[in-house]
Design brief:
Layout (H helix, E strand, L loop, with lengths): L4 H14 L7 E5 L4 E7 L7 H9 L12 E8 L2 E8 H13 L4 E6 H10 L8 E6 L8 E6 L2 E7 L6 H16 L5 E6 L8 H4 L6 E4 L21 H14 L1
Protein backbone atom coordinates (compact mmCIF):
# COMPACT_ATOMS: atom_id res chain seq x y z
CA UNK A 1 0.00 0.00 0.00
CA UNK A 2 1.67 3.26 -1.07
CA UNK A 3 1.71 5.56 1.95
CA UNK A 4 2.92 8.71 0.16
CA UNK A 5 1.35 8.56 -3.28
CA UNK A 6 2.29 12.11 -4.26
CA UNK A 7 5.95 11.67 -3.34
CA UNK A 8 6.14 8.33 -5.14
CA UNK A 9 4.48 9.79 -8.23
CA UNK A 10 6.93 12.69 -8.36
CA UNK A 11 9.86 10.30 -7.91
CA UNK A 12 8.64 8.11 -10.78
CA UNK A 13 8.12 11.08 -13.07
CA UNK A 14 11.60 12.46 -12.28
CA UNK A 15 13.19 9.04 -12.84
CA UNK A 16 11.67 8.66 -16.30
CA UNK A 17 12.68 12.22 -17.15
CA UNK A 18 16.27 11.55 -16.07
CA UNK A 19 16.25 8.44 -18.29
CA UNK A 20 14.96 10.46 -21.29
CA UNK A 21 11.84 8.29 -21.43
CA UNK A 22 9.11 10.31 -23.10
CA UNK A 23 5.51 9.18 -23.60
CA UNK A 24 5.73 6.21 -21.24
CA UNK A 25 2.68 4.03 -20.65
CA UNK A 26 2.51 2.11 -17.39
CA UNK A 27 1.76 -1.56 -16.83
CA UNK A 28 1.26 -1.94 -13.09
CA UNK A 29 2.35 -5.27 -11.59
CA UNK A 30 1.01 -5.50 -8.05
CA UNK A 31 3.26 -7.06 -5.38
CA UNK A 32 2.72 -10.54 -4.03
CA UNK A 33 0.99 -9.52 -0.81
CA UNK A 34 -1.48 -7.23 -2.61
CA UNK A 35 -3.81 -9.86 -4.06
CA UNK A 36 -5.59 -13.13 -3.35
CA UNK A 37 -6.51 -15.82 -5.86
CA UNK A 38 -8.74 -18.83 -6.22
CA UNK A 39 -9.45 -21.41 -8.91
CA UNK A 40 -13.11 -22.03 -9.80
CA UNK A 41 -14.17 -25.21 -11.53
CA UNK A 42 -17.26 -25.36 -13.72
CA UNK A 43 -17.26 -21.62 -14.43
CA UNK A 44 -16.71 -20.62 -18.05
CA UNK A 45 -14.80 -17.44 -18.92
CA UNK A 46 -17.33 -16.51 -21.58
CA UNK A 47 -16.57 -12.80 -21.81
CA UNK A 48 -19.57 -11.67 -19.75
CA UNK A 49 -17.45 -10.06 -17.01
CA UNK A 50 -20.31 -8.85 -14.79
CA UNK A 51 -21.96 -12.28 -14.83
CA UNK A 52 -18.69 -14.04 -14.11
CA UNK A 53 -17.82 -11.78 -11.17
CA UNK A 54 -21.29 -12.22 -9.72
CA UNK A 55 -20.98 -15.99 -10.17
CA UNK A 56 -17.54 -16.01 -8.56
CA UNK A 57 -18.77 -14.29 -5.42
CA UNK A 58 -21.58 -16.80 -5.00
CA UNK A 59 -18.85 -19.26 -4.06
CA UNK A 60 -17.28 -19.32 -0.61
CA UNK A 61 -13.89 -18.00 -1.71
CA UNK A 62 -12.57 -17.91 1.87
CA UNK A 63 -10.42 -14.82 1.38
CA UNK A 64 -10.26 -11.60 3.44
CA UNK A 65 -11.98 -9.51 0.77
CA UNK A 66 -15.48 -8.08 0.76
CA UNK A 67 -17.39 -7.91 -2.51
CA UNK A 68 -18.20 -4.22 -2.23
CA UNK A 69 -14.52 -3.36 -1.64
CA UNK A 70 -12.92 -5.68 -4.19
CA UNK A 71 -11.80 -5.54 -7.78
CA UNK A 72 -11.78 -8.96 -9.44
CA UNK A 73 -10.19 -10.21 -12.64
CA UNK A 74 -10.92 -13.55 -14.25
CA UNK A 75 -8.92 -15.52 -16.79
CA UNK A 76 -9.12 -18.99 -18.30
CA UNK A 77 -6.80 -21.56 -16.78
CA UNK A 78 -7.21 -24.93 -18.45
CA UNK A 79 -10.81 -26.01 -17.87
CA UNK A 80 -11.11 -23.64 -14.90
CA UNK A 81 -11.25 -19.92 -14.19
CA UNK A 82 -8.52 -18.15 -12.24
CA UNK A 83 -9.98 -15.43 -9.99
CA UNK A 84 -7.67 -12.70 -8.66
CA UNK A 85 -8.98 -10.15 -6.18
CA UNK A 86 -7.51 -6.92 -4.80
CA UNK A 87 -8.93 -4.40 -2.33
CA UNK A 88 -10.22 -1.25 -4.04
CA UNK A 89 -8.42 1.00 -1.54
CA UNK A 90 -5.07 -0.64 -2.27
CA UNK A 91 -5.46 -0.45 -6.05
CA UNK A 92 -6.73 3.14 -5.79
CA UNK A 93 -3.55 4.08 -3.89
CA UNK A 94 -1.37 2.75 -6.72
CA UNK A 95 -3.51 4.53 -9.31
CA UNK A 96 -3.05 7.77 -7.36
CA UNK A 97 0.72 7.33 -7.68
CA UNK A 98 0.45 7.25 -11.47
CA UNK A 99 -1.95 10.19 -11.53
CA UNK A 100 0.52 12.29 -9.55
CA UNK A 101 3.19 11.17 -12.04
CA UNK A 102 0.87 12.17 -14.90
CA UNK A 103 1.35 8.79 -16.58
CA UNK A 104 -1.33 6.73 -18.36
CA UNK A 105 -2.16 3.34 -16.85
CA UNK A 106 -2.71 0.72 -19.55
CA UNK A 107 -2.85 -2.54 -17.61
CA UNK A 108 -2.90 -3.94 -14.09
CA UNK A 109 -1.67 -7.41 -13.19
CA UNK A 110 -0.56 -9.40 -10.18
CA UNK A 111 3.06 -10.52 -9.95
CA UNK A 112 2.13 -14.16 -9.21
CA UNK A 113 -0.34 -14.61 -12.07
CA UNK A 114 2.11 -12.90 -14.46
CA UNK A 115 4.95 -15.12 -13.21
CA UNK A 116 2.79 -18.21 -13.69
CA UNK A 117 2.25 -17.24 -17.31
CA UNK A 118 5.98 -16.58 -17.69
CA UNK A 119 6.85 -19.94 -16.13
CA UNK A 120 4.65 -21.79 -18.59
CA UNK A 121 6.85 -20.45 -21.40
CA UNK A 122 9.75 -22.53 -20.09
CA UNK A 123 7.99 -25.73 -19.08
CA UNK A 124 9.00 -28.72 -21.21
CA UNK A 125 6.29 -30.86 -22.73
CA UNK A 126 5.02 -33.72 -20.62
CA UNK A 127 5.21 -31.95 -17.24
CA UNK A 128 1.99 -33.02 -15.55
CA UNK A 129 2.68 -32.07 -11.95
CA UNK A 130 4.73 -29.09 -10.81
CA UNK A 131 5.98 -28.04 -7.38
CA UNK A 132 6.89 -24.35 -7.49
CA UNK A 133 8.61 -22.63 -4.56
CA UNK A 134 8.27 -18.85 -4.49
CA UNK A 135 9.43 -16.03 -2.25
CA UNK A 136 9.06 -12.33 -2.99
CA UNK A 137 11.39 -11.05 -0.26
CA UNK A 138 13.52 -12.36 2.58
CA UNK A 139 10.91 -11.15 5.07
CA UNK A 140 8.14 -13.25 3.52
CA UNK A 141 7.61 -16.99 4.07
CA UNK A 142 8.30 -19.51 1.34
CA UNK A 143 5.14 -20.47 -0.55
CA UNK A 144 4.64 -23.86 -2.12
CA UNK A 145 2.46 -23.89 -5.22
CA UNK A 146 1.39 -27.28 -6.57
CA UNK A 147 -0.06 -27.47 -10.07
CA UNK A 148 -1.67 -30.12 -12.26
CA UNK A 149 -1.69 -29.61 -16.02
CA UNK A 150 -0.85 -25.94 -15.53
CA UNK A 151 -3.71 -25.28 -13.07
CA UNK A 152 -2.87 -24.21 -9.47
CA UNK A 153 -4.18 -26.78 -7.01
CA UNK A 154 -2.43 -25.99 -3.69
CA UNK A 155 -0.97 -22.72 -2.41
CA UNK A 156 0.60 -23.15 1.04
CA UNK A 157 2.75 -20.83 3.13
CA UNK A 158 5.54 -22.80 4.76
CA UNK A 159 6.18 -22.14 8.44
CA UNK A 160 9.69 -21.03 9.32
CA UNK A 161 9.65 -22.49 12.84
CA UNK A 162 9.76 -26.05 11.49
CA UNK A 163 12.11 -27.79 9.01
CA UNK A 164 11.09 -26.30 5.68
CA UNK A 165 12.14 -29.23 3.49
CA UNK A 166 10.14 -31.68 5.63
CA UNK A 167 6.98 -29.55 5.39
CA UNK A 168 7.34 -29.26 1.63
CA UNK A 169 7.93 -32.96 1.06
CA UNK A 170 5.06 -33.98 3.37
CA UNK A 171 2.70 -31.59 1.56
CA UNK A 172 3.71 -32.93 -1.85
CA UNK A 173 3.24 -36.54 -0.77
CA UNK A 174 -0.19 -35.84 0.73
CA UNK A 175 -1.25 -33.97 -2.41
CA UNK A 176 -0.06 -36.72 -4.73
CA UNK A 177 -1.93 -39.32 -2.69
CA UNK A 178 -5.15 -37.34 -3.13
CA UNK A 179 -4.77 -36.71 -6.87
CA UNK A 180 -3.36 -40.16 -7.64
CA UNK A 181 -0.14 -38.54 -8.81
CA UNK A 182 3.54 -39.23 -8.38
CA UNK A 183 4.42 -40.44 -11.87
CA UNK A 184 6.08 -37.22 -13.03
CA UNK A 185 6.95 -34.26 -10.81
CA UNK A 186 8.95 -31.18 -11.76
CA UNK A 187 10.42 -28.73 -9.26
CA UNK A 188 11.03 -25.03 -9.85
CA UNK A 189 12.49 -22.52 -7.36
CA UNK A 190 11.87 -18.77 -7.46
CA UNK A 191 13.45 -17.89 -4.12
CA UNK A 192 15.24 -14.75 -2.97
CA UNK A 193 17.31 -16.76 -0.51
CA UNK A 194 18.21 -20.19 -1.82
CA UNK A 195 19.91 -21.07 1.46
CA UNK A 196 16.54 -21.61 3.16
CA UNK A 197 16.44 -24.99 1.44
CA UNK A 198 18.74 -27.96 1.42
CA UNK A 199 18.40 -29.11 -2.17
CA UNK A 200 20.03 -32.47 -1.50
CA UNK A 201 17.25 -33.24 0.98
CA UNK A 202 14.32 -31.79 -0.91
CA UNK A 203 14.94 -32.73 -4.52
CA UNK A 204 15.55 -36.01 -6.31
CA UNK A 205 14.48 -38.16 -3.37
CA UNK A 206 11.74 -39.87 -5.37
CA UNK A 207 11.74 -41.38 -8.86
CA UNK A 208 10.39 -39.54 -11.90
CA UNK A 209 11.45 -36.13 -10.61
CA UNK A 210 13.28 -33.31 -12.37
CA UNK A 211 14.44 -29.84 -11.38
CA UNK A 212 13.60 -27.07 -13.86
CA UNK A 213 15.91 -24.10 -14.29
CA UNK A 214 14.24 -21.59 -16.62
CA UNK A 215 16.84 -19.90 -18.81
CA UNK A 216 15.87 -16.28 -19.21
CA UNK A 217 16.90 -14.96 -22.60
CA UNK A 218 15.88 -11.39 -21.73
CA UNK A 219 17.14 -9.13 -18.95
CA UNK A 220 16.38 -5.42 -18.57
CA UNK A 221 19.10 -2.87 -19.19
CA UNK A 222 20.20 -0.62 -16.28
CA UNK A 223 18.23 2.62 -16.21
CA UNK A 224 21.52 4.55 -16.02
CA UNK A 225 24.76 3.87 -17.96
CA UNK A 226 26.63 4.30 -14.67
CA UNK A 227 24.96 1.24 -13.16
CA UNK A 228 26.07 -2.35 -13.61
CA UNK A 229 23.81 -5.05 -14.98
CA UNK A 230 22.10 -6.57 -11.95
CA UNK A 231 20.12 -9.74 -11.47
CA UNK A 232 16.39 -9.55 -10.96
CA UNK A 233 14.57 -11.45 -8.24
CA UNK A 234 13.52 -14.81 -9.76
CA UNK A 235 9.79 -14.23 -9.27
CA UNK A 236 9.97 -10.72 -10.74
CA UNK A 237 11.97 -12.00 -13.71
CA UNK A 238 9.29 -14.59 -14.50
CA UNK A 239 6.56 -11.98 -14.06
CA UNK A 240 8.22 -9.62 -16.55
CA UNK A 241 8.54 -12.51 -19.00
CA UNK A 242 4.80 -13.09 -18.61
CA UNK A 243 4.03 -9.41 -19.15
CA UNK A 244 6.19 -9.34 -22.31
CA UNK A 245 4.36 -12.42 -23.60
CA UNK A 246 1.04 -10.57 -23.44
CA UNK A 247 2.49 -7.56 -25.26
CA UNK A 248 4.03 -9.73 -27.99
Amino acid sequence: MPLQSEAMGELLADLLLDCDVIGAEIELVLPLAACHWRVLEGVAANGNQEFEISHAFRHDLQWPLEREDTYVSLSSCGDCVLVVGVARTLLRAWIDVLEFADLPLRRVEWVLSAALRGLKLFLPEGVGELAWLIQASQNEPVRLLLMRSGVPDVDRRIRSDQPIADQIRDTVRAWQSLVDGGNSLAWCCSLIDQSVLDGSVLFDTMPFEQVLQPQMTWVPSPWSPDLEQGELDPLVHLALAGVREVKL
